[in-house]
Amino acid sequence: QQDHPDYTPSVDSLVKLIDKSSEEELLKLHNDLHRALYEMNDLDIHLKHNQNFIDAAKKNGNKDKEMLARTLRIEAMYNHSAPDSLLLTESRKALDLMRGVPEAEGYYFYIASIVTEKHVLSGNYEEALHTAEKFYKEAQERKNISGIASALQSMGMAYGALELYDKAESSFRDIIALKGKFETGIRSDAYKNLADMLINQERFDEALEVCKAQEAFLSKLKSHPDYQEGIFDNLLFLNSLAYGNAYIGLHQYAEAEKYIVKAKTYSIATTELGIFSVEVVRFHLLQDQGKYAEAEKSLDLMDDVHGNDAGNTTKLDLKELRAELYY
């Protein structure tokens, strides 16, 4: 077996297990490897192993796992802050491949939500809303609850970016209240996005109640096998950051710091996106306390992890944060 001295122990262990596993075991191990690879913060290595996952699923004739692997490929690009052009091109290819494939319907609408979110983060708000409304119509026609929820999520984000806050709030609350089975992450993100919007409107007490409701929702999943394997860690990470922002708004700084520390315990906190997300909250905490020199260090770290690949909205946000700090 080949040693990989540049791999983290958990990644190296899984790669070696995959080398000697049966095809059935191999598919599950690849799913585990996808999560562990975030520890390395290396998109090229992540995509190399993802391609192995796709190839193994195709060889095994497992269409569902193949579609899952292709979806995780897009997710990895998003979480590793791949350039917009690469992410959108690969997403369109995946959507074309999945369109009309019964096993892929849930994955199809998940990728659609990533495309819309990327348009929002890049400042293309009208395009984001147009794309979300298109996928919402598709989901309604197919009576796909997951797709409806995903599209509502995307519409809510686009409405929020366009400052149509009542429509955004309505979209997020519709998801939370939506009956039927759909992805846990979508409902959890609706809580998170609603909390973020309320925080931006300085409705901090309401935001805190939404954070508590999200935490209660996630705590009900503790008996789920995936909970113990860390599947829901990203959702818990975002919940912790929302708590931090709400407590900053309420000037309860010790509580805010507690949740920032908690957020850093999750594996996504080691990725560029995770580091950036944590530092945004930390910046506001330090700024609110008048600790400007430390706040500037947070800004420098945000610049370092995004560099020249940051989207237009991210670059603008960083400039605005520096303006807040200096003036």
Q: How many individual helices?
A: 17
Helix fraction bin: over 70%
Evaluate the radius of gyration: 20 Å
Mean pLDDT metric = 86
Question: Cα distance, first to last residue?
Answer: 58 Å
Count of β-strands = 0
**Binned strand content:** under 5%
Give, in order, the helices and strands: HHHHHHHHHHHHHHHHH
Structural class: mainly alpha
Q: What features would you describe in this structure?
A:
The protein has 17 helices and no strands. The protein is an all-alpha fold. The mean pLDDT is 86.
Task: List descriptors.
single chain; 17 helices; mainly alpha; 327 residues
Write a brief caption for the model.
The chain is mainly alpha-helical.
What topology does this entry show?
Blueprint: H1 9-20, H2 23-36, H3 43-59, H4 63-79, H5 84-98, H6 105-121, H7 125-142, H8 145-161, H9 165-177, H10 184-200, H11 204-219, H12 225-228, H13 233-249, H14 253-263, H15 272-288, H16 292-306, H17 312-326
